[in-house]
Known about the structure:
The structure holds two protein chains of two kinds. Chain A folds into two domains: 123 residues, Immunoglobulin-like, CATH 2.60.40; 105 residues, Sandwich (Jelly Rolls), CATH 2.60.120. In chain A, 21% of the residues lie in helices and 41% in strands. Chain B is built from six helices and two strands; from the N terminus they run αββααααα. Chain B has a two-stranded antiparallel ribbon. Chain B starts with a helix and ends in a 9-residue tail after the last helix. The chains are: A alpha+beta, B mainly alpha. At the A-B interface, helix 1 and helix 5 of A face helix 4, helix 5 and helix 6 of B.
Amino acid sequence: MTKKMRTILGFLLVLILISVGINLQYAMKMRIDEPIYVKRYERIDVNENSYTEIRIQYIKDRYDDRELTAIKFDELDQIFDVRRRHNTWSPFENEKTVEPGQGRYYTFSDLFISFSFDQSLVERIDEKGDIILTHATLYFDDESTLDVAIGEVTLGRFKVNSLYREGASGSDCTFEAKFDTKGSLYITGFDLSTYEAHKDHVKLSIEVDGMRTYSYEDMVNMKKPIIVTRGLEVHYDAIKENKNQQWRFSDICPVIYYEQDQKESLKVYYNFLTGILDDESVEAYVKMWRELND
Amino acid sequence: MTNIYKRLYAGFLLVLLDINLERIDMLPDPLGYWLILIGFMMLSKKEKSLDHKIGCVISGLMLTYSIYQYIANIGAGSGHLTMLSYLSTVVTMILSASLCFITYRVSIRNYRYRVKQARIKKLMKEADQYIIINALAILAFSTVMIVPANFILGMTITIAIVVFVLQVRFILTLKRIKKQWITWAISPQTIDLEV
């Protein structure tokens, strides 16, 4: 081996060692102490003796062995056992050994609870109005617990307001929800706080009466009420056309305040369930969580 | 020397090729590393050299690690990248590349009084290309914990293809060298085979 070759090889070896050191340090920095609950905004219309599933998704550190066993919502007395979905098939290993959502730093868990609405719950809603679940306690198999914000799950009776959902459609990178009105009404304001963290990744706009389009900036800087005579559409468009941005739609819940005979508000829910998040989405979620919490 | 190269060739071939049936490798890597270790031990007995000693140590380490992998049934395609698997992959890649490079060097030294200088230079050039490209591939792989998640799959596939091509080239060269030593064993003349 020539001296020149030895120098090149030595230099490359040093670079590899430096790179390994930096990579391991970065991976250590990416670790999280406690699981992160994947927030969700949805409304469930309650009927007597009906059953529904609520999706429970959380992200934990790759080396965190704890498993979620139960969840208790602060606003309800019952403790719900969480259930695991069947593992997906992988061409590399047999289906029983594959943990879906295992990435380089984190493990993504996709679980669900079965919700049954008995008479007492329906009566409670009829008497006191919607039950809004915002916080919960997670119970893990090592008997540890964790208090988390879950987003907002509203349990309520079906009712038709002056502005009501007519339909929704979506693709990998877009979502649009259509709303119709009963007569003319005035939009007086917006609460776009859940959108703030995603504004660099998702373009939000509303189209009123099929003619006038309002961007996020227009909505924030709105000076006079917007009149709606027929209906409106709310659009989410991923800025980077990549289906891995789709999870952001579940994390956005704009509120539209409007007036007709009385003041009312409308929450825009993304009604397509985001499935198992891939590594890119999971890492983006944790990054966003860090920015909001650190 | 013929027997040594037969062992080295068979050993490297077993390590390179994987035939999996029900997740069990029918061409087990530990057997391959065992043959390579025997080959280097035989070379060590013939001639005391640092390269031979390093070859013995690396093939011994790789034998131990491959036995652990084989028993624990850790497949290369498990797809779970952790800090530990990352570190072990980088170390394995470095050791594996070093072992092949040392085999190149040993073969070049064994050729020194037997073949024309041009042929030796050609083999040296191939060995240098092998180790430099491999080092660059390892350097690229070493960034896998830090690059954006959507790059990982494409990057690891590219690195795997590059390393595989280098290994195939190395195996073919080793096969020619083995063939050459067989020819010399039959008829001890100066070689004319393309190395």
